[in-house]
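Why does this matter for the project? Reviewers at the last site visit asked to see concrete outputs rather than summary tables. In response, this paragraph embeds two records directly. Each consists of the residue sequence and, immediately after it, the corresponding structure tokens. Nothing has been edited or filtered.
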Amino acid sequence: MDPFDDISEFEKTMKKMLENFFGKGSIEVFGPTQRRQRNKTPGVREPITEINETKDEVIVTIEIPGATKEDISLDVSSNGIEISAKTQRLTDSGEVSGTSSTEFKKFMSLPTDVDPDSVNASYKNGILEIKLKKLKQTKSKKVTIK
């Protein structure tokens, strides 16, 4: 059984309880899920991400539970990151056994230009951390037109 099925069921229950209390509305309990990705590929989850900046680098943290580093594909350009991962697990619940898979995909623009050759990525306990050095910003120069 996919652990995200439990989360989805919990989310539905919480949404129903909150709607009964507050009335109908748009209540989103957890990070991005399939129903909020109307224009995206069905069955693909968008991982929860966080982007932070220091003076010299951009740090991107992405949650990809259940993946191994071999499952993850990362493409970096000077102004964006594309991440994809597909996890497969063997399931055995007594009488039924098989495999379940989860696919993650996301493209994000970065807040500033970075050096794609400076990427340092590490993956541990479901968290992918990507560190990128910022490109030096050149100052503008006033030009006299002749």
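We now turn to the second protein, recorded in exactly the same manner.
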Amino acid sequence: MLSIEDDSTLPQRLIHLRQSLVVPILAALLGCAVLAWRQLPWLVLIVIFSTLVGGFRLRKKLLNERWSLAAYLSFTVRLWLGFNGFWVVLAGAPWFLGALDRLIQTASPSRWPAALAVAVGLGL
């Protein structure tokens, strides 16, 4: 795919490549969900990461980009968090508050220092 950048059918080939990658990526995610559902958040991140890394060379060649893989991944993560960060925090709030409550309840002799450490960590 990298050697045909001047081909007139390149847009159609790119669309076909993207469509042909959907099934293996969804199969990998479904396999992770069925076989290792407890590790699903980490495995989803690994699948997304590997998809980004796999498409980096093609993107770099076609768009004539000059940045490194680390800069590309950093930019992609920051862009995603910029657009979706509020919703991720909102969706994770019940889990975070439950974990916070368990932390404070289990630290019964030192409950106030634990609460103070959490408050400082949250920036309050």
